[in-house]
Design goal:
This protein is an alpha+beta fold and 74 residues long. It contains one helix and five strands.
Length: 74
Amino acid sequence: MSQLHSVSSRPSPALQAYVIEIGETQAGLVSRRGDERYFTFIAATPAYHALDGHRFATPVAAESAARQLASPRR
């Protein structure tokens, strides 16, 4: 099961960041500054480098993309 974790315990209007986990693997994190509209993905492992630098409207959208990347190809 995937999980989304806030990096800080207090929300900050200047920066928002969330850790993206797929199962027990940390896929990466997404972050945005207060003046940015989109979250930017930063890969934590080589398996998710394909998403590195991609922008997402929400952390959930980034998590979904990471989950699709992790799913076995059929």
